[in-house]
């Protein structure tokens, strides 16, 4: 049985005041849901120490929005996976579409970050997904398979025993558009089938999250789908009532 995971990705948002209020508000819902659902927030690096201090002792987990391939050295501005782990991070998001687009991260670069995260005791959250043009052209799984295959080639299929996948249709991120539960489920099922072509047991066990404008309104129907194991939540994760409702939707369908 796969335990659902609801994860907030704060992106480039937050102040000391808002982070304090948000984390304090999420501890009780995370504790309440803990038997059935894992709850986590991924914060900008500058706030991770605050999140550690605020969330310690609760069931709320935390992680980073990215990590570097290097653990130390002359790489100004990067965030080492060993440093992230020192501040209590459980997860590191890798390959988010915004990183792929704005920072020109290739599939091979993302795979290297995934490998570095795992080697330093972080659980990588591998983001995969297609643009609107690729979706319209029916190329969704061509894109997703290539993104997965880069990781399999570098790290092996067994690596997905200690990883999370987030399917994020790029055309639905921050746009208010959401893939219908049926569209999202088909892609999730196709991802699991593709992984099963390498190892059925690994495919059956890996958690696959939906990450395209998942919010309090859409979450209940999305989480009813058999291959959707939770959500990677953007804007709604910045609002405690909305994120709490998403956690409760995952708990209800666990």
UniProtKB/TrEMBL annotation:
Active site, UniProt feature: 96 (electrophile), 168 (proton acceptor)
Localization: Cytoplasm
Entry GO MF terms: triose-phosphate isomerase activity
CC terms in the record's Gene Ontology section: cytosol
Ligand binding (substrate): 9-11, 174, 213, 234-235
Family annotation (PROSITE patterns): TIM_1, TIM_2
Entry keyword annotation includes Cytoplasm: yes
Record-linked InterPro entries: Aldolase_TIM, TIM_sf, TrioseP_Isoase_bac/euk, Triosephosphate_isomerase, Triosephosphate_isomerase_AS
Source species, domain of life: Bacteria
Main location, first listed in the record: cytoplasm
Keywords: Cytoplasm, Gluconeogenesis, Glycolysis, Isomerase
Enzyme class: isomerase
One BP annotation, GO: glyceraldehyde-3-phosphate biosynthetic process
Pathway the protein takes part in: Carbohydrate biosynthesis; gluconeogenesis; Carbohydrate metabolism; erythritol degradation; Carbohydrate degradation; glycolysis; D-glyceraldehyde 3-phosphate from glycerone phosphate: step 1/1
Annotated EC: 5.3.1.1
Pfam name, any one: TIM
Record's catalysed reaction(s): D-glyceraldehyde 3-phosphate = dihydroxyacetone phosphate
Family: Belongs to the triosephosphate isomerase family.
Entry function: Involved in the gluconeogenesis. Catalyzes stereospecifically the conversion of dihydroxyacetone phosphate (DHAP) to D-glyceraldehyde-3-phosphate (G3P).
Subunit note: Homodimer.
Cross-referenced NCBIfam families: tim (TIGR00419)
Name of the protein in its database record: Triosephosphate isomerase
